[in-house]
Amino acid sequence: GWCDYYLTYGEGIRTSDVSVIPKRSTLIPVGSPSIDRRLSQSRKRSSIHSNHIRVLWITDKSYGNTIGHDNRMEDTGRYLLHKRCLDMLGKCPDLELTFRPFKTTEEMLGTIRLINSDPNLDVNIDTTSTLDDLIDKHDLVITDNTASTVWNEAIVFGKPLILFCDPEQTFLMDHFVSDLERSCCWCRTENEFVDAVKMLVREGSQYVNKLSQIDTSKYIEKYILHSSNHRPVDRIVSFLNEMVFDKEFPVLPQNRCDN
């Protein structure tokens, strides 16, 4: 990159070992100020009690399990997976399901038309609420979104997570793979994803409680907040002060061409 230093969310965020571009920058783990602020606001919200298990499904574009297929309007395989799972979740009397589609895709996704046209599916489509509010109001998050930002938000807000992500199509670094599989119910294949949904429908609150017991503290420290005491803004200010005022602060060699 063109910067000497990059501020990151944690020590788990690393550069790839395989790169054709020489590495000259240093990564400085400080945590996410945005998520830290949103997390403090979340703690102030009052909890909502319900006799049902409230499930939030944050979906992706229906372009396969990758973000590289933007030239296709619909992917039949992903649609059929949605249909198969919604047929279980949307007809379970013990669940309240909210479906959050990828923004700007509401009008093109066949899944949305399926929900709206099937009177037997009890599914609420929410395209307007903030993600923070939605996560707060639900007991469990399901996602087939390839963006790790969504995974991180569910985990840091303390919600059990059922994730569908095919590592054959979405590149994940080896150390992140081992951390992710210990932090949620990670389904690598469609069959694993369907099995997890079946387990949720069959066992209900017992399954939610089981997933709630997963210790995510190390994941949160390595990929989101860097430290258990949070305070990412203080760490950023401390680093900038040291860089500006400490005469012994290491300065990386300048190998760029100045025009």
Relative strand content: 5-15%
**SSE sequence, one letter per element:** EEHEHEHEHEHEHEHHHH
Report helical residue fraction. Answer: 25-40%
Q: How would the global form be characterised?
A: elongated
Classification by helices and strands: alpha/beta
Mean pLDDT: 85
> Which sequence of strands runs across the widest sheet?
5-4-3-6-7-8
What multimeric state do the chains show? single chain
Main sheet attributes: strand count, strand direction, barrel closure? 6 strands, parallel
Number of strands: 8
**Rg from alpha-carbon coordinates:** 21 Å
- Indicate the low-confidence ranges by residue numbers: 65-73, 253-259
How many alpha or pi helices? 10
Distance between the termini: 18 Å
Can you describe what's shown?
There is one protein chain. This protein has 259 residues and is of the alpha/beta class. It is built from ten helices and eight strands. It has helices at 33-44, 76-89, 110-117, 131-137, 148-156, 174-181, 190-203, 205-212, 217-223, 232-245, and strands spanning 5-8, 26-29, 53-58, 95-100, 123-125, 140-143, 161-164, 185-187. The strands form two sheets. The chain has a six-stranded parallel β-sheet, with helices on both faces. Strands 1-2 form a two-stranded parallel sheet. Strand 7, helix 6 (174-181) and strand 8 form a beta-alpha-beta unit. The longest helix is centred in the N-terminal third of the chain and has 14 residues, at 76-89. It is elongated and about 70 Å long.
